[in-house]
Amino acid sequence: MNISIAAEALFYWGTFPVTNTLLVALAISLLLISIAFLGTRRLREVPHGLQNVLEAILEGMFDFITSVTHDREKSKNFFPIVATIFIFVLASNLVEVVPGLGTIGIWEEHGGRQILVPFLRSSSADLNVTIAIALVAVASLQVMGIATIGFVKYASKFFNFKNPILFFVGILELVSEVAKVISFSFRLFGNIFAGEVLLTVVLFLLPWFAPLPFLFLELFVGFVQALVFSMLTLVFLTMATVEAEH
After folding, report:
1. pTM of the full predicted structure?
2. What is the pLDDT of residues 82-92, one digit of tens each?
3. Average per-residue pLDDT in the chain?
4. Which has the closest alpha carbon to 22: 31, 3, 4, 9?
5. Calpha distance 219→222 (Å, rounded)
6. What does the pLDDT look like over 9-20, one tens digit per residue?
7. How far is residue 22's CA from residue 103's CA, in Å, rounded to a whole number?
8. Residues whose CB falls within 8 Å of the CB of residue 230, separated by 6 or more in sequence, listed in order
9. CA-based angle 140:146:150, to the nearest 5?
10. Strand extents, DSSP E, the chain
């Protein structure tokens, strides 16, 4: 049994390493794009089938976002970002309970011993992926804030020279924006990687019925982590679009 924090490279495209987590992230992206295409290619006034399922899910998510923002216009602006992050992170998290994930791969020799390099691994267990999602979320905060209240008013949250106290508060706000990237990425990575390690250890020690409770636990944790990530993004978006005076 081998536990690796870093994602394992399966092959190289030139000098670019193609890792198992990258393959999973691409597969999830293609799957979600395909579902969206199939559900919207023939839109009907009275939805049925896949269109009906997608509309029910997205409408429920939109209503939930509106319950936080209390502003339908803001909800329309925030919805694509928040919904995309939630769906992608949720799919990435739940992949770790797919049978064979992390246990089917190729054996390679490292340091005189055989190590299994799995073909597939949850993309949320790769710090590179979680940092990328966190950067998108935090960048969206800045774009939405500037677009909503204007560059000057938004910048005044971070650079305010009216008095020393406001200047110090602005510096703290600036530091907090950077800290959001670290908080977002490490929280998601830590929880999913820990769950991946737990499942690997349990499967190695007691491979039959013992892992079942842990599988249900990981399903719950995966959903909660996706909800926390998207909810924090939504809350920060709402705060970013409010003027400093308020």
Report:
1. 0.85
2. 999 999 999 98
3. 82
4. 9
5. 5
6. 777 888 888 888
7. 17
8. 82, 83, 85, 86, 89
9. 165
10. 9-13, 16-19, 105-110, 113-118
